Amino acid sequence: MDMKAYRIATVDMVRHPVVRVRYDDGFEEEMDFSEHIETGDLFAPLFDPALFATVTVGPSGRSFGWRLSEAGREIDLCADGVRSALEEQRVRRMADTYRQRRSAAE
Q1: What's residue 97's pLDDT?
Q2: pTM of the full predicted structure?
Q3: CA angle 11, 13, 17 (to 5 degrees)
């Protein structure tokens, strides 16, 4: 079975430290980097709102990140891995909403 290779159409800063990732198939979701920035050395530079605002889509839409043209200093994320995480995030949010509505109706 072939896996789909996802492609990112756009990525925009919503507010520091949240980006909205849009894929070429129309799927879009916000990704919050708060925990990553606070707990990881790799993402620590993104604490700077000016750097965070420079988020951009990588070549062919297969990644997104910061400082992509600076070899050794880039911070980039794979389109497929992010898609999986964002889909899981959406499903969890939908399940939470369903549980809340169900318990309110009982």
Answers
A1: 82
A2: 0.86
A3: 125
Q: Name residue, tokens 């750097």.
A: 51
- C-alpha dihedral, 9 to 11 to 14 to 19, nearest 10°: 120
Both structure tokens of 90: 């959406």
Q: Note whether 55 and 64 are within 8 A (CB).
A: yes
Whole-angstrom distance, CA of residue 56 vs CA of residue 9: 10
| DSSP 8-state assignment for residue 46 | G
Cα–Cα dist 102/79, whole Å: 34
As given in the structure block, the two tokens for residue 12 are: 């925009």
pLDDT in tens, 44-88: 999 999 999 999 999 999 999 999 999 999 999 999 999 999 999
